[in-house]
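Predict the holo structure. Ligand: iron/sulfur cluster.
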Amino acid sequence: MSEKKVYIIPCSGIGKVFGSIGRKTAYIVVNELAKDKTNLECLPLIVKGKKEVIEAIKENKVIALDGCPLKCSYNDLMEAVGKVDAHFLTTDIVKENRDLKPEPSIIPVGENTKQLSIKLAEKVAAEVDKLLEKNMERDD
Ligand code: SF4
């Protein structure tokens, strides 16, 4: 049985609700939906070149969550780690759910923002299972 984990790395977006969706999504995945299968790590620490973290991500799987098309998490991971196993944009979940317009409030986030984060977290958790499954197939 594989012991591998999936690292969840949200971007550092703090000024807009799209960054909040990414962060909230990461918390739901790591603390609820894919607990024991995932680890949360801090993007600035990776950018700073923290060796242990970069090595751990290289040996495991990693999902980038970004709050806009500038894709800071994806691009920084590619530069520091050299790979990203899956990538999600919070703007996509907003486009897919036009009835749930995210409220502009960041603290606290609004009800629609919470719902969007749950929806995105469900997708990310499904991807976690897929990545770990693929990894187990390779181990067999
Ligand atoms: S991806 Fe967009 S929202 Fe996230 S840190 Fe970069 S600029 Fe900010």
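The mean pLDDT is 95. Residues 6-139 form one domain.
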